Amino acid sequence: MKKIILLSALSLSLLSPTVAQGANTYEVAKGDTLTKIASEYEVSLSELLKTNSAINNSNQIQIGQIINLPSTIHTTNQEKGQSVEQQVLRLAFL
């Protein structure tokens, strides 16, 4: 059963939009909004907009657009420096 869950989680992680490791960027996916991205990374919308001064209208972002993430992204000590796969493996065996 754990193998099925683990494989499903790994498959989902490969399909999900990702943050480029160490680059503090995010690629906009279908259905994303700046508010949703800010919430997902636990930063305020104003922080996200300050980091992306080229965005004039927060309601007009495009799929595939690269968004800079503030350097103050909240992560747990266990997640720092771990790949998505490492995080999935850690969660699968809790």
Report the β-strand fraction as a percent range: 5-15%
Q: Low-confidence parts, pLDDT < 50 over ≥5 residues?
A: 12-22
Oligomer: single chain
Radius of gyration computed on alpha carbons: 15 Å
Helix content percent band: 25-40%
List the total number of helices. Answer: 4
Tell how many strands the DSSP assignment holds.
Answer: 2
Give the overall shape. Answer: elongated
**What is the overall pLDDT average?**
74
Largest sheet: 2 strands, antiparallel
Instruction: List the secondary-structure elements in sequence, H or E.
Output: HEHHEH
What separation lies between the terminal Cα atoms?
14 Å
Describe this structure in words.
This protein has 94 residues and is mainly alpha-helical. The chain starts with a helix and ends with a helix. The longest helix has 14 residues, at 2-15. Helix content is 39%, strand content 6%. It is elongated and about 45 Å long. A two-stranded antiparallel ribbon has the order 1-2. Mean pLDDT is 74; it is low at 12-22. The chain has helices at residues 2-15, 34-40, 45-51, 84-92; strands at residues 25-27, 66-68.
What's the helix and strand layout?
Layout: H1 2-15, E1 25-27, H2 34-40, H3 45-51, E2 66-68, H4 84-92
Helix pairs in contact: 1-4, 2-3
In short:
With about 90 residues, this protein is mainly alpha-helical.
Overview features:
39% helix; two-stranded antiparallel sheet; mainly alpha; 94 residues
